[in-house]
Amino acid sequence: APTVLWFRRDLRLADNPALGQAVGEARAAGSDVVGLYVLDPALWASAGPVRQAYLARSLRELDASTGGRLVVRHGDPREVVPALCAEVGARSVHVAASYEPYGRRRDDAVEALLAERDVSLRRTGSPYAVAPGRVRTRGGTRGGTPFQVFTPFRSAWLEHGWRAPAPLPDDVAWATLASDGLPGAPEAGARLPAAGEAAALDRWHAFLADGLADYPTDRDRPDLTGTSYLSPALKWGEIHPRTLLADLASAVRSGSVPEDSAATYRSELAWREFHADVLFHHPGAVRRSLRTVVPEDAWATGATEDALLAAWCEGRTGYPMVDAGMRQLLGTGWMHNRVRMLVASFLVKDLHVRWQRGAEHFMAHLVDGDVSQNQLNWQWVAGTGRDAAPYFRIFNPVTQGLTFDPDGAYVREWVPELRGITGKAVHEPWKIAGAAPGYPERVVDHAVERKVSLADFERGRR
Ligand code: FAD
Prior knowledge:
Elements (H helix, E strand, L loop, with lengths): L2 E5 L9 H12 L4 E7 L1 H25 L5 E4 L2 H12 L3 E4 L5 H16 L3 E4 L26 H11 L36 H14 L4 H4 L12 H5 L5 H13 L5 H23 L20 H13 L5 H13 L4 H14 L4 H11 L5 H12 L14 H8 L4 H6 L31 H16 L1
Flavin-adenine dinucleotide binds next to helix 8, helix 10, helix 13 and helix 15.
């Protein structure tokens, strides 16, 4: 009987241990592997047009790398997966384990339904170098507890280590089976990066050769191409972090990359693993703050909240760096990390809108939108997460612009109304009368709102 490899957010063949398992089992049985993707309407609907478009392209690439044998079935996996196993007589379904609340519930349900038919769901690997829940403090009667703070988590994560990348199985015998067909790519309305495993590897190799050495200094500069732009590929599993970590180690060994650059990059990957770990232990963090820092009455409500949120979403707050970021998001489905932190701080601490509303807008538009990374980064900025930024750390939108976009090139790229202003003066257009026709007035005064937020925080502490 064939075995089934059910792809979810691991849309690649290289370094895919679940694929290795499926192939090994199929070979032993003298059979082939069904490469399955289930187009789950619940996930598809929540992905929104940007991620739908990217996913559709990524699936097309995956299909091509299986010689056009990817079997796409549309429907609820709880029905589709058991039905497919019955159709082909499969006894096992191989997956990389899911750790987000929806994926865990889905897999447990599918596992139980398969068990009724004597079919097993086999989990090998995960989208992380170390599976969420594994890295724990040392000692204690129950073998340690989850980490609350990032830095010790990172040390323990580094010490824990990870497996070497899984070898690419040669000559996979993919089964030929009827497919409902690849999803059509909706109009994303944004300029998206090339999707698929080959594009991800190309992007990574180019970054290793040209970007990584300067990463520690350039990564905070939205006006430069200082980061790897791999978040969409990591989100969809077109590349595995284990591959990145192994390549970093060999680049350091060969002397092509300094250790401090590799360490900085490794540390960012560690944040990704930390947030996944926190969400694993606190699935409610998708919606609920992990702690409360300001009183309920601190938040804008009703029409005021709606108007402020709309100005922020559309990039017309009157603060150039914030508006540039929000327009970059709408234009490309991606935003530079430095600017994500700034716009999130601005929404919560200058506009007094709850982080959940901002997180929702991000999830609707980010090509790398990922429930663990998005919700926990928002909680970090809002001061409500585990090891979050302190609430009293309030980003100044002008200073952030002057420091991280020193010539104003990033702002001019995304805010055409400001292109008439040269140099860093673009960060304070209100100082030059008539220089920015059509650019909105500031919706709030940062200096005032900062004080309001600090007072709210004091009240919350009492
Ligand atoms: P690089 O600087 O090249 O970093 C390499 C990789 O490290 C990234 O691809 C990412 O996987 C990881 N990484 C880097 N920074 C972070 C971070 N702060 N937290 C977790 N992992 C990180 N990232 C997402 O992947 N999906 C999201 O939905 C998401 N939402 C965010 C929301 C907010 C409010 C903030 C402040 C950050 C969010 N991030 C999210 C994290 C970060 O902004 C992106 O991962 C990063 O900008 C991706 O660009 P890059 O691949 O060029 O990053």
